[in-house]
Amino acid sequence: MALESRRLLASPYEVTTTLDSTVNGSGSLREAILLANSNASNTTGVLDVTITFDPTLFSTPQTLPLTNGALLVNAPNLNLTIAAPVPGDLTIQSNGTDRLFDVLGGASISLSGLTLTGGSTTTIGGALEVLSKSSATLSDCTISGNTAKDGGGIYNNGILKMSGCTIEGNSAKYGGGIWGNSKTTLIDSTISGNSAVEGGGLLNYHPGHAYLTNDTIA
After folding, report:
1. Which residues lie below 8 Å from residue 44, measured CB to CB, with a gap of 6+?
2. Burial class (CB within 10 angstroms; exposed 0-12, middle 13-18, buried 19+) of 126
3. Which pLDDT value is given to residue 4?
4. pLDDT at 157 over 90
5. 162 pairs with which residues across the strands?
6. Structure confidence by residue, pLDDT tens digits, 116-134
7. 195: Cβ–Cβ under 8 A, 6 or more apart, which residues?
8. For 183-190, what is the mean pLDDT?
9. What is the C-alpha to C-alpha distance for residues 155 and 14, in angstroms, rounded to an integer?
């Protein structure tokens, strides 16, 4: 007897579209993050969530355009992981009206193999803002083509760790690549071609600390 071939139902945290939708069941990245925030808020203890991507749709390089503002990660007990199926093959791109990620409220996010671009804000963090008591860990990511008043690429007031990343072509008044006044750690990363009135690559304010290991800043 022949067995019917079936694909298992998608995980509620699986992205199955490149569209930016808030509609329940849409399969968008935004919907998956909203669900993670909601579930973490209703969970006792830390909730670890890994967002995955449909293996057929994301078997080739894809861009996820953000048309509904920044992606908000704000549940205090949420550890959220977003990794490109193939490093370098997934771009998240703002439409130029907001940053890409807001990480606040004590939430933690890990990003891997992504390109974050097109973010623009008149305030802080062109691509990513990490606020007090929150943290972001980035590996093998590219932050490019973003702009803000403070932190054209990244604004860090929490804990930021980056390894194997490239921060290039971002602009701001202060801190073209990264603005920080908390804890910033860079390992095997490159900061180049960013521009600002003060601190084109990295601007670190007291009482913040920046720890640099085997990095290139140009």
Report:
1. none
2. buried
3. 40
4. yes
5. 138, 186
6. 999 999 999 999 999 999 9
7. 152, 170, 171, 172, 176
8. 98
9. 28
Distance (Å) of CA 79 to CA 47, 70, 131, 137, 152 = 6, 18, 15, 11, 25
Contact 194, 166 (CB under 8 A): no
Q: What is the structure's pLDDT at 7?
A: 39
C-alpha–C-alpha distance, residues 147 and 154, integer Å: 9
Q: Under a CB-based contact definition with an 8 Å cutoff, are residues 122 and 147 in contact?
A: no
CB neighbour class for 178 (10 Å; exposed up to 12, middle 13-18, buried from 19): buried
Q: Which tokens belong to 216?
A: 């290139």
Q: How far apart are CA 177 and CA 144, in angstroms?
A: 9
Instruction: Give the number of other Cβ atoms within 10 Å of residue 14's Cβ.
Output: 15
Residue 9, pLDDT > 90, answer no
pLDDT band for position 10 (cuts 50, 70, 90):
low
> What is the Cα 199 distance to its own chain's centre?
22
Q: How far apart are CA 18 and CA 28, in angstroms?
A: 7
DSSP at 124: B
Residue 140 above 80 pLDDT? Answer: yes
